[in-house]
Structures are given as structure tokens and as C-alpha cells.
């Protein structure tokens, strides 16, 4: 295949997709607003990028669109790929412009509004969760969900950034004040997406285990790939600290059925999706908490490849170009892979080094340069490094991942059971049944 392949704001697994596109014979063009500086495991992908198109930002849709289209000129664009939420609407517009199959700008715009998606699910009887949007939220005089907690989230969400579990109006007001101050240090293009004018909303908590279902749509049909579990920080369960794939969840059938019903309701025709759900401990209904019209973030692609013995980035290119069949997903994994993230110890002011032990660690990623002054060690956006291990069993992969976590040191000091390193694996609730 010849022609251009546009990668929008590339980071993390997108570099694997870039390499796959280049192998396909496509000319890769990186369209970006921030400097492109991949961590060591992905730096080799820079040689697969033929051209760079700098845009001023992604909130100015017209400016970015015109800059990219003008640069492409009459050259054929065969595919596009985007990860960050702020680029998804631009990608949809480019796909419409170049006649590529996709969800369309209106559909993408709707799914990016998490409050509107929740409202649609309530109308269709696919959720019981209640939500209160920004203006009404600021006028509350008493807690709206007696006996229950809630999560305060940006309506234009991006991962778990600015997500906080709240149990009182005091919690809400403190977090709204932080949101209004824009004081938190996060990447500029993520901040631009979060602050796009839609504000915050308070969503009733779905109590249970957080997992996600990875999948894709092709010709209007949803095809699940597998379930990914979650490791979360014990002191704040809104902070995700890792994943294991595939997760042999005892309620896998219920998870797939709920996600399929939601895809059908929204009407997603094409492309990868990443759907986060809560599975109640009491056997109640599975609740969706996030629908994303993109592939899973972080390093889940690498876990999937390791576990299934595939290179799914090739399939992501196939979806992006709208041509050819996809890999048949094996019914049984060849192994189970667990990827985990690190925060620096609480209050650490300067990062110098990290030592992640283990000859069986098949992936290491350090995202903070030695000598960097740390502005914060409190949030998910403050992750400093990641690693991945594999084992023949799901239980074994989780156990080995926790051993490596406890034995890792930052600035020469063992992380051990520090408050920023003690995590919860939700699967502990049912893993004994395996």
C-alpha cells in the first residue's frame, strides 16, 4: 500500500502503530502540537516517521485541519490514527474529508460528552447511575446521593485526570476549587481538552470491580478481544496503577453482553473501542463508566501482544485504512501479561533514578528524565515509570507483578510498602475460585 498515514499527537502505543504503518509501505506523517519525545522503548519508531506537521493546537479545529490538509495537498491519505481524546474529533473530520470509513464527527462529539452518554444510557434502561452537571452541581446545598459516594469528573474526560471520589459536598467543593484554579501540572494538550468548556459532573458511584473490555467495530459489528483488569492505588482508588490481560473474569459473559448492548445503542460503525465497566460484588447489573472511541491507553497493546502472540498494531493499521481482514483472536492466551505503573514516593522533590529488577521483566519504560524536579507525586498523571511481566497463569502474572513492584527502588530507596506503592488488585475478590 502507498500513500500517507497521519498519526495525530503520537505517544505510547501509537509508536507501535507507526512502525506497523511504515511496514505496510505507508508514508507516516506525525501531526503534533507538543514535542515528540518517546521514552526509550519506543524511540526506534522515530525512524518510521517520514514527515512532521506542527499545529498550534487541537482546540482550534479549523486551523489544525487547514494546516494538515494543506500540507497533504493532492497526495492520497490512506489512513489516520489518534489516541488522545482531544485529537479524536479532528481525526473524524480528516477521515470524512479523505473518504475513510469511521464514526463521523457528530458521533465522536457525542461520545466525548460523558454526561450526554450517561443520559442516553438512562433513557435506554442500560444504567441506574444518576449524574448532576456543572452548574446544578455548584448550586447544591446538600449531598444528592444519601448513603452513596460519587465520582466528580470532567465531562470532557481524559483517562482518570481530575477524577476524584467524593462522599460530601466539602469534597466536591475542594475539587471544584482545584479544577477552577487550573493549578495541576498536566500536559498542555490534555489540559486543553479537559477545559473545553463543558465543565464537571458528579456521577453516582457504581460499587464493585473496575475492568475494561477491549474490542473494535467493523462493518457495524462489535468484536470483543478480551478483558483487562485494574490495579489501583490503595489510598485513592481513582488512581490506576496497572493492568493484567486477559482477565478470566467469572462474569465475562455479562461484561461482553452489556458492552455489546451499549455499542448497538450508540451505533458505532468502525474502529477500536475501550469500554470501562464496574462489576458489582453482589451479582448486580454491570455498569459502564467510560466509553472511548479509541484503543486502550497506556501499554495495554504490549500486554495483548505478549499474551495472545500477535502484533495487534498491524490490525490497528488495517482498521485505520479500512482494508483487509483482521487477525483471528486466539480463544486461549499463550500466557498472561501484567503491566504496572509507578508513582514516586510521596513528597519526593527530585527524581534521579529507578531500578526495576527481574530478568523476566519484558518491558520497562521510564517517562521522567533523571534530575527532573517533581511538581507533584499525588495523581495518576504523575506516573514516572512502568514495567511488564508474564506468567503461565493469571494468578502467577499478578503475583510476579507485585513482587517486582515491592522490590523496585527510586533514588536508591526501596519503594516497598510506601503509601504511593501499596495497591489493590480487584481480582483478589474472586481469584481464589480459579
Helix content: 25-40%
Shape: globular
- What does the average pLDDT come to? 93
CATH superfamily of the largest domain: ATP-grasp fold, B domain
Structural class: alpha+beta
**Tally of contiguous helical segments:** 12
CATH class of the largest domain: Alpha Beta
| Distance, first to last CA | 46 Å
- The low-confidence parts are none
* Strand order in space, largest sheet: 18-20-15-12-11-23
What's the structural domain tally?
A: 3
Largest sheet: 6 strands, antiparallel
Oligomerization state: single chain
Per CATH, which architecture of the largest domain?
2-Layer Sandwich
Give a written overview of the molecule:
The chain is of the alpha+beta class. The chain has three domains: 4-100, Rossmann fold (3-Layer(aba) Sandwich); 130-204, no CATH class; 209-433, D-amino Acid Aminotransferase, Chain A, domain 1. Helix content is 29%, strand content 27%. It is built from twelve helices and 23 strands. The strands form six sheets. A six-stranded antiparallel sheet has the order 18-20-15-12-11-23, sandwiched between helices. A four-stranded parallel sheet has the order 3-2-1-4, sandwiched between helices. Strand 13 and strand 14 (287-292) form a beta hairpin. Helix 1 (14-23) packs across helix 11. The chain starts with a strand and ends in a 9-residue tail after the last strand.
Write the SSE topology.
Layout: E1 4-8, H1 14-23, E2 27-32, E3 49-54, H2 61-72, E4 77-82, H3 85-97, H4 105-112, H5 114-123, E5 131-133, H6 134-138, E6 150-154, E7 164-166, H7 169-181, H8 188-194, E8 200-204, E9 209-218, E10 221-228, E11 231-233, E12 236-245, H9 252-266, E13 271-279, E14 287-292, H10 300-308, H11 312-321, E15 336-342, E16 350-351, E17 354-355, E18 363-366, E19 372-373, E20 385-391, H12 394-407, E21 409-410, E22 413-414, E23 423-425
Parallel strand pairs: 1-2, 1-4, 2-3
Antiparallel strand pairs: 5-8, 6-7, 6-8, 9-10, 9-13, 11-12, 11-23, 12-15, 13-14, 15-20, 16-19, 17-21, 18-20, 21-22
